[in-house]
Every structure is written in C-alpha cells, then in structure tokens.
Recover the amino acids of this structure.
C-alpha cells in the first residue's frame, strides 16, 4: 500500500489530504514495479520519506528499477528518507490465530506512521508501499485479507492517508472469487483500469442474471435492487466509465460514468457511427475502427486513445477493450478513461 501524509508546519497551515484508499491490480510483476518505481522516484526526488513493505523479490526488482532512474537509495537511506520492511514480519506483529487483531494493528501501524511522520519536513509526504494483503490472499486466507482491507479502510479515514494496495489480477478467478473481488474493490476509493475491465465483465454477468430473475419471479425485488446498487457502487469506485458493444446491432451501451466521460448527460445507448462522430481527428477514427474490427473478427483485446472536443477544450480519452466469448458470441466490454491531465 502507498500511504501519504502531509505534516503541517507550525508557522503555516497546509490543507489536509483527503482520505484515499486505492488498489492496483496488475497483470505482471514488471507492470507493478514500473508503477511503484515511478511513484517512489517522484517521492524521493521531492525529499519525501519512503517505506517499502514488499516481498524480497519485489524489493530487489524495485532497487534495480530505481537505480535505472538515477535514484541513490543508499544516500536516501542514510538521510533517513528510505526504509525497507518485510511484510511477513509486520503481519506477525498483529495477527492472532490467523486473523488481524484490530488493537495490535492500530498499535503497529500507528506507531510506524507516527514515528516516520515525526521526521518529515513541513509539507512533505510519508510514502508507504505494503504487500501484506496480497501475501494473505496468496496464502489462501480470504477472510483475513478482507478483514485487513477493512482495517486499512478505517485507518485511512481517521489518519487522512493515501494507501495503495496491490494484487496480481490472476489470483482472482471470476468463477470462484467474484464476490471477494467485488468486496475488495468496494473497500477502496479507486481501482485501476485492469480491475475496471474485470468489474465490467462481472457487471455484465449480473445484468444477465437480473434479467432471468425478473422473468422467473416478482418476489425477489429486494435482491434485484441490491444487485443494481452493487453494480452502481462498483462503477463509481472505478472512476472510469464502462461500456459494452453489441456487434450484431452496432449499439454502444454506456454506464453513467462512461456517458459523462464522452460528454453526454443521460445517454445510455448510442449507435457506433455516432460514437465515431465524436472524434474530430480522422486518424483517431481510423485507428479505433481498425481495433474494433480486429476485436470483432479475431476476439483480441486492445487499448487506444482518441480526442474529442468538450466546450472550448480538447479531451484525451483512453479506450480499453476486453473481448469475451459468451456461448459462442463475442462480447466486447471495456472502459473509457479521461486521461487529459496525465498526458
């Protein structure tokens, strides 16, 4: 997890950061290390304090990647701005009978963060990456993982921290762990696009189940309403809009968040041709159309960017697509993300 904390200087007021509990689902160790190296390198260059609580394998890979980015970890460690911890050793301090103990967790993590924060210069951050939850999940301790996530969630709200959890996405088999995966996502304020694609698929499955329930009985309104609210919560958590393309009718179905990303107020379905009209660069239209055709014909996934005009400005939209086989029919699910401020 990555934790950030702003220390207020006595002579000047600094606005307190809003609580943020994010999660990074990654498809490869390499992709995780790149994200972490970028975050930690920026923190060390800004003279923030960094603590890594990662597996030995990831610590070693992270050192190599940071060295390639010209980060002197030895100097940072000597200055008290870089520290490495082992997640197994930390877990041993607050686990009781295989379950995280709330009081011990508060004591261990509270002391760690308070001690580090005491050394911060005014206006600087404490940055912590921690893999304890991923370690518990890898050991098959599902309930303990979810419990630890809940403890972190409450901890961030009280301490106004920014936390980043990290899990390998391959550890979550949709046929076995879709409920746990959804619960973990709901415990976070943000998830990344890899998780958003998986959530889009789960939402699609839920929608089909709802349709069957409505046809069979009228006595399950409470359960149906709960499922709808769950889908809405998952889409809000992603901070990215999900979409589905019906290749037979060429109709694009948008979540409320996706409609907002594209500049619509209430549109839930638009024709594919109308979607392409949003792109004012012909090169963008050609690129996206080529990807859509390949996905429909070959069942491949893709990620591409296009530009749209909104008001007097230009927005850069990233489009990710996962193509699934549903009983012999290809279904295209994906995410729209406004990355204008990132580009």
């Amino acid at each position: 997890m990555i934790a950030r904390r702003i220390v207020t200087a006595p002579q000047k007021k600094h606005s307190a950061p809003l609580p943020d509990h994010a999660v990074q689902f990654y498809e490869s160790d390499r992709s995780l290390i790149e994200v972490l190296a970028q975050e930690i390198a920026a923190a060390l260059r800004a003279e923030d304090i960094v603590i890594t609580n990662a597996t030995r394998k990831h610590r070693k890979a992270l050192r190599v990647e940071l060295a390639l980015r010209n980060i002197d970890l030895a100097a940072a460690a000597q200055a008290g701005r870089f520290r490495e911890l082992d997640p197994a050793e930390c877990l041993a301090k607050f686990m009781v009978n295989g379950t995280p103990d709330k009081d011990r967790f508060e004591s261990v993590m509270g002391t760690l963060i308070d001690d580090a924060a005491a050394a911060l210069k005014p206006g600087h951050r404490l940055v912590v990456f921690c893999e304890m939850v991923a370690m518990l999940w890898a050991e098959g301790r599902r309930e303990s993982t979810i419990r630890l996530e809940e403890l972190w969630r409450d901890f961030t709200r009280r301490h106004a921290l920014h936390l980043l959890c990290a899990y390998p996405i391959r550890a979550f088999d949709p046929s076995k762990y879709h409920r746990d995966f959804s619960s973990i996502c709901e415990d976070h304020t943000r998830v990344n696009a890899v998780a958003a694609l998986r959530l889009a698929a789960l939402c699609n499955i839920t929608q089909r189940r709802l349709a069957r329930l409505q046809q069979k009985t009228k006595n399950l309104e409470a359960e149906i309403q709960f499922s709808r609210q769950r889908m809405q919560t998952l889409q809000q958590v992603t901070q990215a809009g999900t979409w589905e393309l019906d290749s037979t009718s060429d109709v694009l179905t948008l979540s409320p968040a996706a409609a907002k990303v594209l500049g619509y107020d209430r549109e839930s379905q638009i024709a594919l041709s109308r979607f392409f009209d949003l792109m004012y660069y012909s090169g963008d239209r050609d690129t996206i159309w080529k990807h859509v055709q390949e996905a429909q014909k070959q069942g491949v996934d893709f990620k591409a960017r296009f530009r749209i005009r909104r008001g007097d400005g230009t927005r850069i939209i990233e489009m990710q697509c996962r193509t699934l086989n549903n009983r012999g029919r290809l279904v295209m699910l994906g995410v729209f993300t406004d990355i204008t401020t990132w580009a």
Notes: The CA atoms of residues 199 and 279 lie 26 Å apart.
